[in-house]
Amino acid sequence: MTDDQRLALAIRLAREAAGVILAARKAGVTVAAKGDLTPVTEADHAAERLIVCAIRAEDPGVTVIAEEEVAAGQVGPLGDAWWLIDPLDGTRGFVEGRDEFAVCLGFVRAGRPVLGAIALPASNEVFWGMVGHGAWKEDPRGRRPIAARVPPPEGLTVFASRHHANDPRLARFVAGLPVARLVNAASALKFCRVAEGEADLYPRFGRTMEWDTAGAQAIVEAAGGSVTTLAGVPLTYGKRDFVNPDFVCRGRP
What we know:
Layout: H1 3-27, E1 31-33, E2 39-41, H2 42-58, E3 63-66, H3 67-71, E4 81-89, H4 91-95, E5 102-109, E6 112-120, E7 125-130, E8 134-139, E9 142-146, E10 156-161, H5 168-174, E11 179-185, H6 189-195, E12 201-204, H7 210-222, E13 226-229, E14 247-250
Parallel strand pairs: 3-4, 10-11
Antiparallel strand pairs: 1-2, 4-5, 5-6, 6-7, 7-8, 8-9, 12-14, 13-14
Helix pairs in contact: 1-2, 6-7
């Protein structure tokens, strides 16, 4: 399978999984707790089954690392390239009735994100991109290319985690920056706003996993932005425990 074919597959599955999640939401959300006490719903499992089964059928031989399978102890060998799947990013907000949840698919090669697709089911938005080839968005207004922006003269629009809004590390990080607006939001939505030029900065302090960021990073980089560690090194993949360090997502310099 070529990377162009993989991107088309990721876009299609992001859309289909979004439909599954919205149907599950309409039917009523049943919540359970995983071993780490984070919530999981049937929508998480149903979306993951759809995505994982399709990828394994259409891109055989390539390892799929998916959040709920990893939680169940199912982890395959990574090899040189692999998929990273978060079938429902922002489950906590989904359970609380918020609209800030996402479907995230990413493809990684040699530890670097290559391509990704993200669906925001509640707003009927789909984002996708391939590093070096550009990024796009589709919503009820149609399909169009997107690009990260250079910060405007009036100052930075900063997105930050809704559930870590009071983290003192965030306050220290933005202190002295020309911040015009600070928005707290959940899920990969924050990356999408940077990629499409609606935001300039998303600093993240606290635990995230590789499946939370791989597809999003590919889209941001394809749009001309960056996702780096606090030391300025691009975020990489294939860590033993899949846990990311703190990072910063930026638009264009």
